Amino acid sequence: MAATQRIVIENCSIATVDANDTEYATGHLVVAGNRIESLGAGRAPEGLENVVRRIDATGHLVTPGLVNTHHHFYQWITRGLATDHNLFNWLVALYPTWARIDEPMVRAAAQGSLAMMARGGVTAALDHHYVFPKGSGDLSGAIIGAAREMGVRFTLARGSMDRSEKDGGLPPDFAVETLDGALAATEATVREHHDASFDAMTQVAVAPCSPFSVSTELMREGAESARRLGVRLHTHGSETVEEEQFCKELFGMGPTDYFESTGWLGEDVWMAHCVHMNDSDIAAFARTKTGVAHCPSSNARLAAGIARVPDMLAAGVPVGLGVDGTASNESGELHTELRNALLINRLGAHREAALNARQALRLGTYGGAQVLGRAQEIGSLEAGKLADLVLWKLDTLAHASIADPVTALVFGAAAPVTASFVNGEQIVENSRLLHVDEDAIARSTRDEAQRLARIAAQA
Question: Three-state secondary structure along the chain?
């Protein structure tokens, strides 16, 4: 049996994001195989065996890898459209185009979305994919394959829609599934791809799209299916005022009460956005430990509002960060969401006390791991956890005069990623991806975006 190989990282600042927010001004970290073996102040211990690499990380901050909790990869090939619309008008404008996606388009879009996140410090990504036009191919397999090639830890939230235009929904009729078809396809995806092991690289969640695009039966039966299969549940919730009005008109109750009535509150559930939550809603989420994916840039882009993140955190609601689809957050980056979450929440009721730099970093790391149900494995730098970590370069002009490294990372310009590791394997070096050709991905996504535009124009 081969001896475990070690990587030693030294001379760096470390923000562990553990329960005590332990930090080291100058410290070390030892990776053994795919686990963090040890970390602490000063130099690494002498006499370590099988050290295959030593990294002098002078001028760097080491943090846990960023965890993205909400995204729609396919939207990479419809960026820059409907830029002055609110959510419902944006959906109406784009669904006719999205309804024409196929497997090559989805694969290229997944590669683009994953590449942009990974080169900016994301080590665990999620895609909520819910558009499955008839005859479009193996879309779930294409997305999972792209993540595997990139080397990113990945969760596919296998979405679905069964409420089309004929039922009062927004998607075209041919772009939705039947109730039975959606349930069967989702279960098949879980059985084929979900890995429940500690160091799993691919997991699957059950994820009907939203209250206004799926039937009550799909919500209820989807929750039952997820719990029978032992996987998590994800959907959109309380994103806009219009959604709240829709739920009251159609179901006779607000979104949170509707979710509870269909089995969609619980510690195995997380919702995207949750912008329009009253005190009762937040209390229900806290009581049930239902998680939230906070997407500040997308919420601003679509004029949805400011989520009450400080109140959620104070109540004990698990909160992580999400890029959201790149048709509503064209940058496609999560590390910029650390800054945007802090700044946008300071425009709310709590003003300068809303969030600080370390709370923002926790949202993007440990908070995201909590939301995905993986806080025992990732999200903080602790001995025994998986070696998902990032080296941020903070000694350039952009950050050199900011003394505190966490403040520099969150408040400052987007920091370069010198190295990013997933499962102990390096996937980024000097802000470039190691396992895929970024330039080829750029060409592919451009070509597929143009092909989709042509098909949509001819429809």
Answer: CCCCCEEEEEEEEEECCCCCCCEEEEEEEEEECCEEEEEEECCCCCCCCCEEEEEECCCEEEEECEEECCCCHHHHHHCCCCCCCCHHHHHHHHHHHHCCCCHHHHHHHHHHHHHHHHCCCEEEEEEEECCCCCCCCCHHHHHHHHHHHHCCEEEEEEEECCCCHHHCCCCCHHHCCCHHHHHHHHHHHHHHHCCCCCCCCEEEEEEECCCCCCCHHHHHHHHHHHHHHCCCEEEEECCCHHHHHHHHHHHCCCHHHHHHHCCCCCCCEEEEECCCCCHHHHHHHHHHCCEEEECHHHHHHCCCCCCCHHHHHHHCCCEEECCCCCCCCCCCCCHHHHHHHHHHHCCCCCHHHCCCHHHHHHHHHHHHHHHCCCCCCCCCCCCCCECCEEEEECCCCCCCCCCCHHHHHHHCCCCCEEEEEECCEEEEECCEECCCCHHHHHHHHHHHHHHHHHHHHHC
Which of 101, 99, 209, 113 has its CA nearest to residue 152?
113
Q: What is the pLDDT of residues 304-349, one digit of tens each?
A: 999 999 999 999 999 999 999 999 999 999 999 999 999 999 999 9
Banded model confidence at residue 4, pLDDT cuts 50, 70, 90: very high
pLDDT band at 252 (very low <50, low <70, confident <90, very high): very high
- Residue for token digits 């078809």? 181
Write down the pLDDT at residue 250.
87
Average pLDDT value over all residues in the chain: 96
Q: Tell me the mean pLDDT in the region 67-76.
A: 98
Q: Could you tell me which residues come within 8 angstroms of residue 160 by beta carbon, excluding any fewer than 6 positions away?
A: 130, 132, 177, 182, 183, 185, 186, 207, 208, 209, 214, 218, 222
pLDDT digits 0-9 by tens, 164-195 = 888 877 777 888 999 999 999 999 999 999 99
pLDDT at 85: 95
Phi and psi dihedrals of 255, rounded to 5? -60, -45
- pTM beyond 0.85: the answer is yes
